[in-house]
Each structure stands twice: as structure tokens, then as C-alpha cells.
Amino acid sequence: MSSVATTCAVDVPVAIKRIQTIHKHASDVTKCCFSKRFHLAVGSRTITAHEEAISMVCCSTDSRIMLTGDTTGVAKVWPVSELTDTCGKSTPLYVLYDCHDMGVNSADISTVTAITNKGKVYSALTCGNDNLVKIWQLTLWKKNTSSHQCAVEMVQSLKGHSSTVTSVCFCGGDATLFATTSMDKTTRIWRMVNSNNAVALQVLEGHTRYVNTCGFSQDGLLFATGSNDRSVIVWDVKGHLDLNVKLHDSSEDLKSAVNIRRDIQVEVTLRKKVMFTNAVNSCDFSNECKYLVAAGGDKTIRVWNIDENEHIEECEDSPLYAHHYSVQQMVISPCSSYMASCSLDGMTIIWDLNTLKQKGSLHTEYGGARSCSFSGNSELIAVACNNEIVFVWKIETLQLVAKLCGNDEDVTCVSFSPDSRYLMSGCVEGHFRIWSVHPKKHIISETSIIVQDKAHEIGITSAHFAFKNPSRKSNSILMLTGGSDAVVKTWRLMNERIDFKMKFVGHGSDITCVKFPRHITTFMASTSLDKTARIWQTKTGDCLHVIDPKDAILTCCSFSSNNKILATGSLDKAMFLWNLPLDDEDATLIRKSTSLEVHRLRLNGMSNGDRRDLEVALSKLSSSTDIPDEFICPITQQIFRDPVICSDGHTYDRSAMMSWFRRGKFSSPLTNEPLISKSMTPNTTIKEAISVFIQQN
């Protein structure tokens, strides 16, 4: 066996779901084992095992061998029988001098995987500060009645984590399934697909800081992870446990974590990329999807026309110049007649959206304008300022209607409810206030009717009310907030009362923007400094998709009026437009694309007849049929429809690779190494073998 360059995560659906989050630690959930010595209770022996600090110790389940590792990257294999003998030797069976660069952090040894003429064979895992996980084969045999010998070979070196790997563990007696945790805030579940190749089945996200440790229950049904965020998350491995029976916790965090599944996937494709000369701070679509506006750090405002065929073209008068400093936010009124831009120069400018001419400018006192929002009836505009004040003007006359005080710190965001009856403001302290508004008389309460303290631990960065659906007569309104604590929260406002609904955990850094789509509350979007955008299902908390535009720190997002396009702005001077897959039968839900009909639309490399025949044959295959692994696409985990060989030498489904490229990814899905080219060669051998297999079954 030899060292094999690993695969990175392969999106194989598994049934793991989070069932409980425990926040009962006063500090980080971690592990510690730093000493130059380890102590054995039997015989009261103390052995100096390493020249440097020992960073990990683990023992096999049959108590025959022990692994130790130190901070320099050296690992040693010890015979337990000799160590527990007060007269026994204290020399290791085997020394790995280059186990991991910069230190060995954790290890685990499986049960005996085989008994050969050479001896008992174990599998072992190690991880380190080099971001790697290594799989080893340990063979142990008796040299004579009182001593042992051991041979160690490396099976595979796994890449996937983007930071230090903190812990590894096998799933009970199953030496083929194991888990790893990392300082990249993720946990990965791996499986050995053959004797010398492991693939990542799933990436689990949920912790907001470093994940330090993990462990499976003895029956393999539960899996737990601990983190620097002071929480322990319990995951249901098989997906069949009843939380109320197995675990009991009435905390609010637990309720929000129940039934969060991690195997939901949707396909979001890149539609267009627009470059700016500086960071894009804000973007917005008009209500009838006729205009798209964006603005940012280059002081400019850009406007695009969107025709009936959804072709996007920049207006002749665009870009617009009016501000002296960075434009912080750009919004379009619900009536689509006006747009507003607010800037750190203290000005908020009202524009006629049809003529792109200024209607007037509004000046705040002693501070820059951070955020602005139109009322649902497009008659008022609220502006949040650095001087702890929210100003409200009447659009028609540009008359100051209210000057709202009460915040102790800078106001970071404002948002009107769609019925124009409420105005919300959030601040850097983490609390928000809600004022009552008379939508016709434009009278705003002098003091806030609701004060929500500590809505977010560090500070509120963004807020948004759900668009009112005219077909629903409920008086309750949903509201989103995002914070510097990397958390998105939903709230329900009803009869001047606010109730917390759910917390959405998954981002790794500050939330920069949260948005509901138009007239829909079943899903929403968020962007973050962690360089991703996420689409969430609001009722269950499921993260439907993670959008990663290649190392771009995302600052804002906005849905088109038909909810088929999501715009995101970034600090790398680009605005991205993403196609969202909507269910044709129910335009309120983003679907998981798994039906045969969906696959049929993607098979661009096959004739209509071949495509139809293949789908009919696949539909007749028995669900119990054991399909060879080589017939399965590593991306879709479905039987190949149109297998092609890419420049990395691996075979994928043509449609899956086309989707991979459309998302802006130009690395190998299996090795994560850059692809030499985007060329795809039909794999006729696999295609013919699948045809024979289908006929035989």
C-alpha cells in the first residue's frame, strides 16, 4: 500500500441530522492532554515516552496496542501488555517520525479488521496541524511469549479540511466509517469505499467556532461534536430517532435544532457576473422585476433594465454619480417609482426610477447614513445614522416626519413592515426597537413599543420583514435579523408583541444581509463574511444550499420579484446573479432536484431516443438491485446517464460536470486539484457496461 492523494467531500446523501444542541458549558468544549509523560494505573508506572509535549494518547479496544503523539509530529506505537508489566520494556514497537508536520492532535484505533498469517491487523487514524487526516494499517504479532512486533503502513492521506484537524474517531466496531473535526468549524463523515480509498460522505455544519472533539455512541446511532462555541451538538446518524424518547431538553436552542437535516441539496447556477471598480455594498430588484440597482464603495449607482425574457442590460444613464463617499445601501420603493441611496457623506438621495433623475436629497445630522427603508405604501422613508438616531421623511414633500431616539449605540439597520404599521431599527449593541406607525396619518410613536434586548450577542447587522402576501389575512408578520454572532434569527410580530421563532446556524462569520423573497415566507437568503450565501427553509431550519462564489466576501443579497434570481454583492468588486431552481407546480418552494424528469432535462449529450430508453430502463430497475460502485457518478450518486472522462482522469455524469462548471468551479470534484481543461471525453466502456447491466437486471 502507498500514500494516496485523497478525495475531497463527495456529496453522497446520508441520513445524519442534528437532534440536540447543549449549551451548558461555561467555556469552550475541548480536550487537553499536554504532557511529556503518561501514567499507567497498573503497576504505577511513569514512562517518559517523548522528547516533547505529548498531544494525544489512544488505546485499541482490545487493550493490546497504544498510540501516542507529540507536538513535533512524532507518533509511537506501544505494546500495552509490556507497559502494564512493572518489569516490562518501555520501548515503542514502532516510531513514525513524520506522522504529521507541526504536531499530532488526535488518533483512534479500530477493532481488529483481519487476522492473517502475519498477525492481527488494525486500522488507525491520525490528524494534525497540517490539515490532513491519515489512515494507517497496523499489523501486530508476537515475537515470542513475552514480546511483540508491529508493522505500520500508511494507507491514505485525506485532504478536505481547510484548517487544523482537531480530532478523529471510528464509528464503534465499524472500521469503514469514521469522523473528523476541524478548526474550519466543520465535521466530516468519511467511509472507506475499498481497502485503500476513503471518501467524504457529508460535511456537518452547525458550530460557530472551532470544532474540537467528536465521538460515536457504542450502537452507532448517535454522534456528538464539541466546540469552542461552548456547545455540544448531538446528531442522529441513522435518521430514525425520536427526540422526545431518547433525549429530554426544553431549551429554546434545542427546539430550534430539532429535525435539522444536512442532506438536502438544491442546484443554484451562476447566471451573470458584473464587475465594479470597488466593493458592492447593496443591491435590489424592483417589485415587477423591471429594474436591478446596485451601489458600493466607488460612490456610483448602477441601474439595469430587465426585459420580458429576463435579459439584463445596463441603462444608458448608468452609472449615476451623486455621493461623495461610499454608498451604504440602495433600495427601490414597493411601488417601483422611486429608489433611494444613502451614504457615509450623510446624504440620502431620492431618485425617480423611471427617469433616473434626483427628486431630492435628505440630510442627516452629525453622521453618515448607514441604512434606509421605504414604507410598504412607498410614502415614507426611514434612514439609520451613525449618531444613534433614526430619521423618517415623507417622500412626496421631503418633509421630516419623525426623529426617533432611544438607541445607546449606532443604528446599523432599519426596516419598515410591509403594511407600513411598524418600523424596526437594530444597533451595534445587539438589541432592536420597534415603533408604531400610522400608515395614513404618518404619525410615529415617540417611544418604541417593543425593545428586544440581546437579540444577537455581538450586534445586529441586517433586518428584513417578509413581504405581505395579499392572499393571507393573518395579522402576524415574520421578521429576519442577522448579527455579528454569525446567526440568523426569525421573529413573529403580532399585536405589538414580538416572539422569537427560530435560529439558523451555519455561517462561520458575521452576517452581512438577510432577505425574504417576494410574497413568500417558506425560504430566505443570507450572506456572510465567511464568503458564502445560504438559502434556508424557514419552517424547518434546513440549509437548502450554500453558494460559494470562489473566495468572494459577500455583502448583500436580493431576490427578483419572481424569485427565480438571487443577486449577491461582494467586496471583490463583483455582483453575482444566481438562477434559483423553483418547483413549477409550486413556485413557493425551492426543490430538491432528484426526479427522473429533472435528469432528463440535463442529458444534453444524448439523443432523445437514447435518453428515453435509458430512463424507462432505469425506472424498471428494482430498488434492491446491487449496483456496482463504478456505475455511480461520484457527484450525483446516481447511475451514469452520460458518463464522461474529465481531465483529472475520473468519470462523471456530463450534466453534473456542466453544472459544476456553471457554478464557477474549475477543480476536480474528487481531488480538489485544478483541472487542466474543461474537456470531457465520452466513457464508452462504462456506458456499454451499464447497458449490459440494465439488460441483465
Commentary on this structure:
The protein contains 7 helices and 51 strands. The chain is 8% helix and 44% strand. It starts with 16 loop residues before the first strand and ends with a helix. It has a 5-stranded antiparallel beta sheet. β2 (37-40) and β3 (45-48) form a beta hairpin. With 697 residues, it is mostly beta strands.
Supply the key terms.
disordered N terminus; single chain; 697 residues; mainly beta; 8% helix; five-stranded antiparallel sheet
Distance between the termini: 35 Å
Strand order of the largest sheet: 16-17-18-1-19
Shape: elongated
User: Roughly what percent helix?
Assistant: under 10%
Percent of sequence in beta strands: 35-45%
Give the overall average pLDDT. 78
Q: Give me the count of strands.
A: 51
Rg is: 29 Å
Question: Which regions are unreliable across 5 or more consecutive residues at pLDDT < 50?
Answer: 1-14, 30-43, 240-266, 583-606
Largest sheet: 5 strands, antiparallel
Structural class, by secondary structure, is mainly beta
Number of helices: 7
Question: Which assembly state applies to the chains in this document?
Answer: single chain
Overview in brief:
With 697 residues, the chain is mainly beta.
Question: Topology, please?
Answer:
Elements: E1 17-22, E2 37-40, E3 45-48, E4 54-59, E5 65-70, E6 75-79, H1 80-83, E7 94-96, E8 104-115, E9 120-128, E10 133-144, E11 147-158, E12 165-171, E13 174-182, E14 186-194, E15 197-205, E16 211-216, E17 222-227, E18 232-236, H2 243-246, H3 252-257, E19 260-261, E20 269-275, E21 280-285, E22 291-296, E23 300-306, E24 312-314, E25 320-321, E26 327-332, E27 338-343, E28 347-352, E29 357-363, E30 369-374, E31 380-385, E32 390-394, E33 400-404, E34 411-416, E35 422-427, E36 432-436, E37 450-452, E38 460-465, E39 477-483, E40 487-494, E41 497-505, E42 511-515, E43 523-528, E44 533-537, E45 543-547, E46 554-559, E47 565-570, E48 574-579, H4 596-602, H5 608-620, E49 643-646, E50 651-653, H6 654-662, E51 680-682, H7 684-696
Antiparallel strand pairs: 1-18, 1-19, 2-3, 4-5, 5-6, 6-7, 8-9, 9-10, 10-11, 12-13, 13-14, 14-15, 16-17, 17-18, 20-48, 21-22, 22-23, 23-24, 23-25, 26-27, 27-28, 28-29, 30-31, 31-32, 32-33, 34-35, 35-36, 36-37, 38-39, 39-40, 40-41, 42-43, 43-44, 44-45, 46-47, 47-48, 49-50, 49-51
